[in-house]
Write a structure and sequence with these properties.
mainly alpha, 79% helix, 0% strand
């Protein structure tokens, strides 16, 4: 459990990825937990890892609290609704759908990192076309987009037992032109809210293993420190490519695990 916690912490600190992408297959195969308990336990671990990673990125001035808190408060209640829905959907459909969706998102990150060049003045990647189009949208409509995105993140987080870190990062980069480091830090802040909402419902239903989740979560802290240090040594281009590769890898693992 120590090794699992450290590895998960590195992944979270490096990419802002949710615990469900790595820990659920491990909890099922090694610890023989059922799918719902595995998802609930992953949310407990998400709460711990998201909290520490948010703090570490904040120390590097890479957390947008205004955006993060706004999205987090909205997604919190919908994460509870999503968790309710999850308890009424066949687990195979949930796992396969999430895995395939994750692969698509990861491939988008890789494409962005490979195709776009860093701007000489800032060292950041060029802005996505979708974000440029949104510049022409009035602020009041941008607020509506934020609300819709937050509702979506909350539902997905509750349904799949994931804080939704990589999906939040995707939205912040491709819709709101966030630089990759700040997107990861802000995503972890939002994930703290979404994971907490889902965790509450899973906890009420008795689908959380606190002993396993707490031990793994504590050792996540060590890994999170290492992952954050690695992430801040990479340029945005290579961090974006690394995000995509890790997301695709974990998505493939989820799909293969369910098909075997």
């Amino acid at each position: 459990m120590i090794a699992i916690g450290v590895l998960l912490g590195v992944a979270s600190g490096f990419t802002g990825i949710s615990a469900v992408n790595l820990i659920v297959p491990v909890l099922i195969l090694i610890f023989s937990l059922n799918i719902l308990v595995s998802l609930g336990t992953s949310l407990l671990i998400d709460c711990i890892s998201a909290g520490i990673v948010t703090y570490l990125y904040y120390r590097h001035d890479n957390v947008d609290f205004r955006m993060g808190v706004k999205m987090g408060l909205i997604s919190f209640s919908f994460a509870i609704l999503g968790a309710f829905i999850a308890h009424n959907i066949p687990e195979q459909i949930l796992t396969n759908s999430f895995g395939f969706f994750q692969i698509i998102i990861g491939a988008t990150f890789i494409y962005r990192g490979v195709k776009r060049s860093e701007e000489p003045e800032t060292g950041h990647l060029g802005r996505p076309k979708l974000a440029i189009m949104l510049d022409k949208v009035p602020d009041k409509y941008k607020e509506v987009i934020i609300i819709i995105a937050s509702i979506f993140l909350g539902l997905i987080g509750g349904i799949f037992g994931a804080g939704g870190g990589f999906m939040i990062t995707f939205i912040l980069i491709f819709l709101f032109s966030f630089e990759s480091h700040k997107a990861v830090g802000t995503a972890c802040l939002v994930m703290l809210f979404t994971a907490s909402g889902g965790f509450i419902y899973y906890c009420i239903r008795g689908n959380v293993d606190f002993s396993i989740g707490s031990i793994i979560g504590i050792f996540c802290i060590v890994g999170a420190v290492l992952g954050t240090l690695i992430a801040h040594k990479l340029s945005e281009k290579y961090l974006t490519i690394a995000l995509g590769i890790i997301i695709v890898l974990f998505g493939t693992i989820l799909v293969c695990f369910e098909l075997l």
